[in-house]
From TrEMBL:
Pfam families: ArgoL1, ArgoN. This is Argonaute linker 1 domain-containing protein. Residues 165-201 form the Argonaute linker domain. InterPro entries: ArgoL1, Argonaute_N, PAZ_dom_sf. It comes from Absidia glauca.
Length: 201
């Protein structure tokens, strides 16, 4: 791999100084990457200022609604909890594909959590094949590559973030929680992300 083609720093070779130690890590190799383009859409959820946890509930409510099912048309889109949607198939955003709006009545139990408006418009296509070229050292890193990595980041965090409490990019589960003084609790947290390495993720 040539440094002229990529910004990854070449490793000079295995180290010889010091004492070998065994390191336990929880890295998992991504064995295959999608080759088809992924559609990137922007969603603005009004009113502004709602935290990501509420925005995820709004998106889930939209997915389950008749309007959402009609818009998604069976496509499993993913939402980053803020303003980005990624879909493996093109989604039609209005007659001219310039944007489309929906209203969602957020239901929390038997009461309404308020009316939210979703404004969805296409941003562009993410070329996932270009990411593999970058990993193989055949292309320099581009904004498209960075967006492709973000797609994978959102993908591996999507389901946990919809099911568990999230803080930033970490999610927390009450399983095996421990009590603390004054009514506080310790919850176990997890962090997942996709990181590029030479030839693979």
């Amino acid at each position: 791999m040539s440094q002229n083609l990529t910004q990854l720093v070449m490793r000079p070779g295995p180290g010889k100084a010091g004492k070998p130690v065994r390191v336990r890590s929880n890295f998992f190799e991504v064995t295959s990457l999608p080759s088809q383009n992924v559609q990137h859409l922007n969603v603005q959820i009004m009113p502004d200022g709602a935290p990501p946890a509420v925005l995820r509930k709004v998106w889930q409510c939209f997915e389950d609604s008749p309007n959402g099912q009609s818009f998604l048309n069976g496509t499993k889109a993913i939402f980053d909890g803020r303003a980005n949607i990624f879909s493996p198939k093109p989604l039609k955003c209005g007659d001219d594909n310039g944007g489309i709006s929906f209203e969602v009545d957020l239901q929390e139990g038997k009461r309404s959590g308020g009316i939210f408006k979703l404004n969805i418009k296409p941003v562009g296509a993410v070329n996932m094949a270009e990411l593999q070229l970058f990993l193989d050292g055949k292309s320099s890193i581009t904004n498209n590559c960075l967006t492709a990595i973000m797609v994978l980041d959102v993908l591996i965090r999507h389901v946990p973030s919809m099911q568990y409490s999230t803080v930033g990019r970490s999610f927390f589960t009450p399983q095996d929680k421990r009590p603390l003084p004054n009514g506080a609790e310790v919850w176990q947290g997890f962090y997942q992300s996709a990181r590029p390495t030479q030839g693979k993720l």
